[in-house]
């Protein structure tokens, strides 16, 4: 049993103001793997006060010194790879190879991207007779999710540190262990006390306290749209900046002239991380002439997707994160069946031979129509919906027929059509023909997928205020 009840405040590991234990459940076994404490108002206030006291000194620290500390953090992060992977495996159910590579690796990748972006980031430029400065916004509350924990912690903490902000991190209480390891890494790297603070808690408690705190200048949140709305309302009274990275219901538009691997690639992408990615291509839309063949390929791909223990090496998927998520996904699969969608693969219940753990059968629905619940709601599990379309105009209309707008996908060998589609779909990102976005490319969405952008120079700007100074020419 791992016991991690302390918080990291002002450069020290400290006991919570009041005992409030919470069990962390290993979703592969349904057993308690760790215990943490949930913070209360006194803990939140102490962490914010530490960040506030550290802000002026950190903001005035020369950029070269901040960069040196970030590089040191990266070195320590690399030495803690196995510890981080094991924490992620236990807390949210990523199979160990995914935890060690994709989950841990996403943090390393983004850190390198920010260091590269900093080399060309201009904190002060000349515009005629004015100087335009980028200055750190202040004390930031970073509220991160359980599905890609290090991806999101690094996307927030590193740019905030880089530009001179101080912060309080509240990771998901469902998956807090990797963030505790991250706090240990920050401590070992030698950042000044108060620059980075960590308080565990739930959304109703510490999350709300940070969102409404008068000494917090900005909230950066990744999670559900429902929670993002609540955070925005809580932050409104103090008019703090709120940056939101929320849900998605990505359309994967596959034209008849798409490459032969497009359908299989789409299924694998949807099932990755057990379907627990906001940018997953969960609505596959296939040109009608290619629809019958696509169903055959999708069925085979889903049935070939292995589900297995998180301690086992391999390319299989693990469980979903919690009993709550498991039950929600089962309910949505049941709704899909009741509303008339055709189950091509998977379906209700656990995979064969599994009677414990929050494992979900990789599921593919065919003949899904826009009036169905599974077409509209973010399922956040290994569930794919497939729908035919007839024309390019219809494909655009269907892709945009959602409250979300995070990532859409287009598969066609016609470059002009590919670009037309990319320009017409309403989403912050469009990936085409299986080509991923480059390091430092902005991540974020339209509509109820949130606001703001993370990654690279856009992620640095997110934590800055802009100041115009007249009459002082640059030397």
From TrEMBL:
| Location of the Aldehyde dehydrogenase domain | 13-469
What is the similarity comment for this entry?
Belongs to the aldehyde dehydrogenase family.
Q: Name one Pfam family in it.
A: Aldedh
What organism is the protein native to?
Shimia abyssi
Q: Name one GO molecular function term.
A: oxidoreductase activity, acting on the aldehyde or oxo group of donors, NAD or NADP as acceptor
What is the protein's name according to its record?
A: Aldehyde dehydrogenase (NAD+)
Q: Which SUPFAM superfamilies does the record match to this protein?
A: ALDH-like
Q: Give the superkingdom in one word.
A: Bacteria
Q: Which UniProt keywords apply?
A: Oxidoreductase
Task: List the transmembrane segments.
Answer: none
Please tell me whether the keyword Oxidoreductase is annotated for this protein: yes
Regions annotated as coiled coil: none
Does the keyword Lyase feature in the UniProt annotation?
Answer: no
Entry's InterPro entries? Ald_DH/histidinol_DH, Ald_DH_C, Ald_DH_N, Aldehyde_DH_dom
């Amino acid at each position: 049993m791992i016991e991690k009840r302390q918080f990291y405040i002002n450069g020290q590991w400290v006991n919570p103001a009041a005992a409030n234990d919470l069990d962390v459940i290993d979703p592969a076994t349904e057993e308690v793997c760790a215990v943490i404490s949930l913070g209360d108002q006194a803990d939140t206030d102490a962490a914010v006060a530490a960040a506030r006291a550290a802000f002026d000194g950190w903001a005035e620290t020369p950029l070269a010194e901040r960069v040196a500390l970030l590089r040191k953090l990266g070195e320590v992060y690399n030495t803690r790879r196995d510890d981080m992977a094991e924490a992620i495996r236990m807390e949210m159910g990523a199979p160990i190879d995914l935890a060690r590579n994709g989950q841990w690796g996403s943090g390393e990748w983004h850190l390198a991207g920010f260091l590269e972006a900093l080399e060309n980031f201009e904190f002060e430029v000349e515009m005629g007779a004015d100087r335009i400065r980028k200055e750190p916004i202040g004390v930031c509350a970073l509220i991160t999710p359980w599905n890609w924990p290090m991806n999101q912690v690094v996307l927030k903490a590193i740019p905030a540190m880089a530009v001179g902000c101080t912060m309080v991190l509240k990771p998901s209480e469902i998956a807090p262990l990797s963030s505790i390891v991250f706090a240990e890494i920050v401590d070992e790297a030698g950042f000044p006390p108060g620059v980075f603070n960590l308080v565990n808690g739930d959304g109703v408690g510490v999350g709300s306290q940070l969102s409404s705190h008068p000494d917090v200048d900005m909230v950066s949140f990744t999670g559900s749209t429902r929670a993002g709305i609540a955070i925005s309302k809580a932050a409104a009274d103090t008019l703090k900046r709120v940056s939101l990275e929320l849900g998605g219901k990505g359309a994967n538009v596959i034209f008849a002239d798409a490459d032969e691997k497009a359908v299989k690639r789409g299924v694998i992408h949807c099932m990755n991380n057990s379907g627990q990615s906001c940018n997953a291509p969960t609505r596959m839309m296939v040109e009608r002439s290619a629809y019958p063949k696509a169903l055959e390929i999708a069925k085979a791909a889903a049935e070939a997707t292995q589900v297995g223990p998180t301690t086992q090496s391999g390319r299989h998927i693990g469980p979903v994160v919690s009993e709550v998520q498991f039950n929600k996904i089962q309910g949505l699969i049941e709704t899909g069946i009741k509303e008339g969608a055709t189950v091509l693969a998977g379906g209700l219940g656990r995979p064969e031979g599994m009677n414990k753990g929050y494992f979900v059968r990789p599921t593919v629905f065919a003949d899904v129509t826009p009036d169905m619940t599974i077409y509209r709601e973010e399922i956040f599990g290994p569930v794919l919906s497939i729908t035919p379309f007839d024309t390019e105009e219809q494909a655009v209309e269907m892709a945009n027929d959602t409250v979300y707008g995070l990532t859409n996908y287009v598969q066609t060998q016609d470059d002009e059509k590919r670009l037309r589609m990319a320009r017409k779909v309403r989403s912050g990102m469009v990936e085409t023909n299986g080509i991923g976005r480059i390091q430092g490319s902005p991540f974020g969405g339209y509509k109820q997928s949130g606001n703001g952008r993370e990654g690279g120079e856009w992620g640095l700007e997110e934590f800055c205020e802009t100041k115009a100074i007249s009459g002082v020419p640059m030397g």
